[in-house]
């Protein structure tokens, strides 16, 4: 753990108000002009750097709507930058759902009306004119500012007033207009839509042709949105820290209790840190003071709590944008710890007969069977039971191939029992692996960015080195960015904690 006296990674001297800048010892920066170790309370922060201290006021419906919009924009911007594969997809509601049935009924009614108008004698073009006007606006939205000639051409050919005049004289050539629209779509579409545009036909069933055109245009609109996302990602990446901090400040101004869960999360880390110091102090110690705690280590301890499988508290508001990523890393880390424990149990059972190649084989089998740790349908106990049987079989097979005696029935029963109970409380090997994993991750969080080296792996974790470094690197990236964005808010909470009169009343003091 970060506050373990055996593996200190930072000083723990008494703090004054000005010392809260130490909270940023392990933060990173997304701007070329910012220092990787920039203080949470640095003057180079934006004008939104300090949380508002205005008195609370009643939250209105407009405030709630504004908060929802700000949170949606914040999460969207964060996802665009942090997820390089992020894109929007066109999703149709299931046909048997209420939304799907309503959509199907409304669309069918519209196309039936259009077909009915065109089949009249003489044909009526009210709905068709509305469609051509909509198609014109969609095509114009695809154009860049420099394509004035094509813009003018589209406006002339799909001029609604001209089409209305033609309709009055029954001179509208819909197939010709459809052919022109398809030719423009072929020029503007992404390569992935070439085949879809080629399949469009401007002859035959006019209504079906227009339906197909609008369907492909919907796909092209989504392509344009994703193209725009790719273009703005580098610029947004340079400004994301200030943008997220400003948006969260707006949320806090509208919703004064928007830091309640975060405050409780930090309070809990403080209490745990004080308890550890109290347990580790000598019998002659006078007591434990919060002034002796390093806020950076306390905050790191809080981050690490989020990776614990049994962590049931609500996610802090400041980490809601990374909640799903943290959940994925939590399940990945649990899988890594179980695989490491299984390999260690197997090595102990085989003793000197265990080879590195056999350990890798056991690791591969374990990783396959333990896939989908985040799936609630996975019965971990049954999976471990199946894994223990498979390992006993592979072990006896390996020993037989090398002409060595196989495991006795008693040894196999003992091995299976150790593997099946591996996640139970106080399991000696799993507890050891979990403790060393926490120490490794705690040390990783203390490293300055960019990482010039990674911490040495504790014993027993060499088998899962690659997987553990993957979890550590991605989690450290989340933590460092989170400290950059929300450092001023954390610093404000820490000030209230550090200078509260009675440590025993920490929660009440900070929450008020």
From TrEMBL:
Spell out where the chain crosses the membrane.
none
In residue numbers, the region (Disordered) covers 1-63
Gene Ontology process terms (BP): signal transduction
Compositional bias (Low complexity): 17-31, 42-52
| Superkingdom of the organism of origin | Eukaryota
To which protein family does this belong?
Belongs to the TCP11 family.
**What PANTHER family does UniProt report for this protein, alphabetically?**
T-COMPLEX PROTEIN 11-LIKE PROTEIN 2 (PTHR12832:SF17), TESTIS-SPECIFIC PROTEIN PBS13 T-COMPLEX 11 (PTHR12832)
> What's the protein here called?
LOC100145732 protein
Q: Which organism is it from?
A: Xenopus tropicalis
Per the UniProt record, the lineage of the source organism begins with: Eukaryota, Metazoa, Chordata, Craniata, Vertebrata
């Amino acid at each position: 753990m970060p506050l373990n006296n055996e593996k200190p990674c930072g000083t723990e001297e008494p703090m004054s108000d000005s010392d809260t800048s130490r909270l940023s010892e392990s933060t990173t920066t997304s701007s070329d002009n910012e220092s990787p170790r920039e203080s949470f309370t640095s003057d180079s922060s934006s004008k939104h750097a300090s949380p508002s201290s205005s008195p609370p006021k009643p939250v209105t419906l407009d405030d709630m709507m504004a908060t929802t919009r700000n949170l949606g924009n914040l999460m969207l911007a964060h996802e665009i930058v942090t997820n390089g594969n992020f894109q929007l997809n066109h999703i149709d509601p299931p046909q048997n759902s209420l939304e799907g049935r309503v959509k199907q009924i409304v669309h069918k009614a519209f196309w039936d009306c259009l077909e009915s108008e065109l089949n009249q004698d003489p044909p009526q073009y009210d709905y068709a004119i509305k469609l051509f006007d909509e198609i014109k606006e969609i095509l114009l939205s695809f154009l860049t500012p420099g394509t004035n000639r094509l813009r003018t051409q589209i406006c002339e050919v799909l001029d609604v007033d001209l089409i209305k005049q033609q309709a009055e004289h029954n001179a509208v050539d819909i197939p010709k207009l459809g052919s022109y629209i398809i030719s423009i779509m072929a020029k503007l579409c992404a390569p992935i839509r070439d085949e879809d545009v080629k399949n469009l036909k401007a002859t035959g069933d006019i209504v079906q042709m227009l339906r197909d055109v609008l369907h492909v245009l919907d796909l092209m609109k989504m392509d344009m949105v994703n193209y725009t996302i790719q273009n703005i990602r580098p610029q947004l990446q340079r400004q994301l820290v200030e943008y997220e901090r400003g948006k969260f400040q707006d949320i806090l101004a509208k919703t004064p209790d928007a830091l309640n869960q975060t405050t409780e999360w930090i309070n809990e880390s403080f209490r745990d840190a004080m308890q550890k110091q109290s347990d580790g102090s000598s019998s002659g110690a006078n007591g434990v003071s919060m002034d002796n705690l390093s806020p950076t280590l306390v905050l790191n301890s809080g981050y690490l709590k989020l990776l614990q499988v049994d962590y049931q508290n609500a996610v802090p508001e400041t980490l809601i944008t990374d909640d799903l990523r943290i959940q994925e890393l939590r399940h990945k880390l649990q899988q890594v710890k179980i695989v490491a424990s299984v390999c260690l149990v197997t090595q102990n059972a085989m003793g000197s007969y265990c080879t590195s190649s056999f350990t890798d084989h056991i690791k591969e089998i374990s990783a396959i069977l333990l896939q989908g740790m985040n799936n609630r349908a996975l019965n971990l106990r049954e999976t471990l039971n199946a894994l223990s049987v498979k390992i006993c079989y592979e072990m006896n097979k390996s020993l037989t191939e090398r002409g060595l005696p196989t495991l006795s029935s008693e040894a196999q029963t003992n091995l299976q029992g150790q593997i099946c109970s591996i996640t139970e409380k106080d399991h000696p090997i799993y507890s050891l692996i979990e403790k060393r994993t926490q120490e490794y991750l705690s040390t990783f969080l203390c490293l300055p960015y960019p990482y010039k080296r990674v911490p040495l792996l504790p014993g027993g974790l060499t088998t899962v080195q690659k997987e553990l470094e993957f979890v550590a690197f991605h989690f450290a990236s989340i933590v460092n960015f989170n400290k950059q964005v929300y450092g001023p808010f954390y610093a404000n909470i820490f000030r209230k904690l550090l200078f509260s009169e009675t440590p025993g009343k920490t929660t009440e003091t900070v929450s008020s």
